[in-house]
Amino acid sequence: MRLEKSDRFFQELQEIVDFIAMDNVYAALSFYDELIEKIEEISENPYRYRMNQTVYQEYSREMIFRGYTIPFFIDTQRDTIVILGIFN
């Protein structure tokens, strides 16, 4: 499956990285690199992640990374996983 990241995801991620960078630039870069690496792994088996705790639909899932929730949607018709955002 192909991965797409929404504009909202990039905006929220930028805010988080900027906040971390105020204390430690290295930690911010490390957080970013590790998160992107974990997101890339979603396409290998997207159904291993828990169903979204608000929506409870089969194709709406979320990954937890360092206390942040990354919701995503599995679009089977387009063979795509859409990363919707990131929040704490």
* Main CATH class: Alpha Beta
Low-confidence stretches: none
Number of helices: 2
Q: Assembly state here?
A: single chain
- What is the mean predicted local confidence, pLDDT? 96
Number of strands: 5
- Domain module count: 1
The proportion of residues in beta strands is 25-35%
- Class per helix and strand makeup: alpha+beta
CATH architecture: 2-Layer Sandwich
Overall radius of gyration: 13 Å
**The CATH fourth-level homologous superfamily:** RelE-like
- Alpha carbon gap, first and last residue: 26 Å
Based on Cα principal axes, name the global outline.
elongated
Helix content bin: 25-40%
In short:
This protein has one domain (2-83): YaeB-like fold.
What does this structure look like?
With 88 residues, the protein is an alpha+beta fold. It has one domain: RelE-like (YaeB-like fold, 2-Layer Sandwich). It contains 2 helices and 5 strands, in the order βααββββ. It has a 5-stranded mixed beta sheet. A hairpin with an 8-residue loop joins strand 2 and strand 3. Helix 1 packs antiparallel against helix 2.
Give descriptors for this structure.
about 90 residues; alpha+beta; YaeB-like fold; single chain
Question: Helices, strands, pairings?
Answer:
Layout: E1 2-5, H1 7-21, H2 25-41, E2 50-51, E3 60-65, E4 68-75, E5 80-83
Helix pairs in contact: 1-2
